[in-house]
Amino acid sequence: MNSKYFMDLEYEFGAHNYKPIPVVIERAEGVWVWDVEGKRYLDMLSAYSALSHGHRHPKIVKALIDQLQKVALTSRAFYNNVLGLFEEKLAKFAGYDKVLPMNTGAEAVESALKVARKWAYYKRGIPMNDGNIIVAEGNFHGRTITIISFSTEPQYRDGFGPYTPGFKVAPFGDASAIEKLIDEKTIGILVEPIQGEGGVRVPPAGYLKVLREIADKHKILLIFDEIQTGLGRTGKMFAWQWEDAKPDILILGKALGGGVYPVSAVLANNDIMDVLKPGDHGSTFGGNPLAAAVGIAAMEVLQEERLDERARELGDYFMSQLKLIESEYVKEVRGKGLLIGVEIKPEYGPARSFCEKLAQLGVLCKETHEQVIRFAPPLVITKEEIDWALERIRKVLTEPIDVPSVKKSLA
């Protein structure tokens, strides 16, 4: 059975809500994956940062197997002997009093919104069910009905209304525009420190710090979605640390599961999190023993292998080398740490064709926001492996374009 067989199978029986790069992965180790024909590829996407530790990290896999042989799921109807250890480690790791464990990133965002709203109504006195939260244009926080309700991407909203009210949108990177939207019913501000799906958009220096000051001034909550930027990805353990702009509510996911299991969490101090009472919120799988064991191992590996420092050093090197490539196709190279975007000029067609060429040469990446090639390799990548990728990236970004539609548009 070859790659085509598996792609056809998925097309026939799966919903068509994805259009993957045509590579069928069969096995993986570290930063490398192999397709069903045995061809090797360098993973430069790492499942949108969920594989920051690399594929099948030995310590994380061992934690998974050891826990699986004891108990995997209890539900929160009972205590288990791993969850409290995970919550303690994560709370101290990130510097908060309390942890609300969930599974996926979107669940964590929804949970944070619920906590923020209840805090506003019961602690701050905003009229019940009448608060608003300010978000940024170009945001991506997931795909639930409520989250797509404040998305500015038309496709994410098309056909899924009616939408959840209670959100205002300001331009990303413009702190003054956010402050102008604040009124007596504003609950807080929700942003990504760097927009990943939005095109690896890095805000101006000082943006996060000013948001912290604005939130303090107006006594509203600052909420950072660090599902993709957190846990070492940008060169700091958390992206807010670049500007000492600690949020009131921190949302984590992806890499928290060590690349083997979905684990997410919402973190806040007692004065915010204590609005939740038994029955207010929950999840059958949230905080299960397997997730807790994996999460503990994931944090330990981040610390032991200093993956944040690796991301900072190798990210600087990778980005500097990308900027040295003389390519007529590239509009801009931007990013922080090992979260890097290469924006392709619109006149040369979408970024997908460049990603497909890279895949043919053994480098796996994915376009985002139509024109941007996103590079976000596992943080365990080496300089030599980056150089291996750069050789192929340089080739794709400098060779003549042979896409007929693009040639026609340039004629």
From TrEMBL:
<keyword id="KW-0032">Aminotransferase</keyword>
<dbReference type="InterPro" id="IPR015424">
    <property type="entry name" value="PyrdxlP-dep_Trfase"/>
</dbReference>
<dbReference type="GO" id="GO:0042802">
    <property type="term" value="F:identical protein binding"/>
</dbReference>
<dbReference type="Pfam" id="PF00202">
    <property type="entry name" value="Aminotran_3"/>
</dbReference>
<dbReference type="GO" id="GO:0030170">
    <property type="term" value="F:pyridoxal phosphate binding"/>
</dbReference>
<protein>
    <recommendedName>
        <fullName>ornithine aminotransferase</fullName>
        <ecNumber>2.6.1.13</ecNumber>
    </recommendedName>
</protein>
<dbReference type="InterPro" id="IPR050103">
    <property type="entry name" value="Class-III_PLP-dep_AT"/>
</dbReference>
<comment type="pathway">
    <text>Amino-acid biosynthesis; L-proline biosynthesis; L-glutamate 5-semialdehyde from L-ornithine: step 1/1.</text>
</comment>
<dbReference type="InterPro" id="IPR005814">
    <property type="entry name" value="Aminotrans_3"/>
</dbReference>
<comment type="similarity">
    <text>Belongs to the class-III pyridoxal-phosphate-dependent aminotransferase family.</text>
</comment>
<dbReference type="InterPro" id="IPR015422">
    <property type="entry name" value="PyrdxlP-dep_Trfase_small"/>
</dbReference>
<dbReference type="InterPro" id="IPR049704">
    <property type="entry name" value="Aminotrans_3_PPA_site"/>
</dbReference>
<dbReference type="InterPro" id="IPR010164">
    <property type="entry name" value="Orn_aminotrans"/>
</dbReference>
<keyword id="KW-0808">Transferase</keyword>
<dbReference type="GO" id="GO:0004587">
    <property type="term" value="F:ornithine aminotransferase activity"/>
</dbReference>
<dbReference type="InterPro" id="IPR015421">
    <property type="entry name" value="PyrdxlP-dep_Trfase_major"/>
</dbReference>
<keyword id="KW-0663">Pyridoxal phosphate</keyword>
<dbReference type="GO" id="GO:0055129">
    <property type="term" value="P:L-proline biosynthetic process"/>
</dbReference>
